[in-house]
Design brief:
Number of strands of chain B: 0
Order of helices and strands of chain B: HH
Helix content of chain A: 55-70%
Helix content of chain B: over 70%
Oligomer: heterodimer
Largest sheet of chain B: none
Strand content of chain B: under 5%
Mean pLDDT of chain A: 86
Shape of chain A: globular
Strand content of chain A: under 5%
Mean pLDDT of chain B: 88
Largest interface: A-B, 17 and 13 residues
Radius of gyration of chain B: 17 Å
Number of strands of chain A: 2
Structural class of chain A: mainly alpha
Low-confidence stretches of chain A: none
Distance between the termini of chain A: 50 Å
Number of helices of chain B: 2
Low-confidence stretches of chain B: none
Largest sheet of chain A: 2 strands, antiparallel
Order of helices and strands of chain A: EEHHHHHHH
Strand order of the largest sheet of chain A: 1-2
Chain lengths: 262, 75
Amino acid sequence: MAGGNIDPMHQFLVEPMFGTESWSLAGYNIAFTNSALFMVVTLLLIWIFMLGGTKGQLVPGRWQAAVEGFTSFITDMMHANIGPKGKAFTPYVFSLFMFILIANLVGLLPLGVVPGLHAFTVTSHFTVTGVLAILSFSIVLIVGFWKHGFHFFSLFVPHGTPLVMIPLLFVIELFSFLIRPFSLGLRLFVAMTAGHVLLKVLAGFVISGLNSGSIVLAPMITIPSLALMIAISALELLVAAIQAYVFALLTSLYLNDAINLH
Amino acid sequence: MDAQSAALIGAGLAAIGAGMAALGVGNVFGSFLNSALRNPAAADGQQGRLFIGFAAAELLGLLSFLIAILLYLKA
């Protein structure tokens, strides 16, 4: 473990809060955890952000311009990838994008400077990102079979495939289709986990450098580690935005497959 | 060699894959810039494809990171 007694994986611990660890429903523990708390915080932030910017003024202020920037970004993406039929799914993809983006950014907030507070990244758990991915995948399946019936299976046979190649290509395309929810959920979860582990490992270097007690060693370890940590934090802000965008982009592409086939 | 040290060596070997993915991601953005500077007018329309390529390259590196973490936590 880096930094002696500093455990970089401790930040991912889900623990019950406010003394709710004994709450249960039908035999299942439903304690209000720090994960649940940060999901609520994320939803509250999105709610406040949207509430302040959807007054529909003729001349938009700064706040409304910010909200319109986000909505038009997703609307344009859906229109470019799906076409006019994508309009019905824009609210879903927008909610997905905003939730992932705000959850990623809230997880990066330096809440640890307040004693007793610990930032928690909701999207660094496969249970959360997996559910989001399954949601997207279910919508793709439902829309595909609803619109095209069993013709939806033609998605797995590209146009102009020679007859002898159809069984092989069908299996390959089916496999690549079924792997989508895993890759979608796994990408977000691993990207967030990796970034946060890296930040905490560097933080461990800073602390153990300061604790070394040597007048030569302490600045030699601490200053480069802290500089790298600041740079990596900036990179993590970029990754938080890119991962939210990639999740929304891939969802829109998969929806395009279900709506327009090939 | 006992199983624990084998798992730790395996974790280190799996981490090579993350560096290989760095080559892939660099190649995606490098090739994009290369062609975007030749034809800047067409660059904006290809941004979606850029991020699809980035996501695919990145995913494969993240998978090797996942293997490394699994081996490390197992050891």
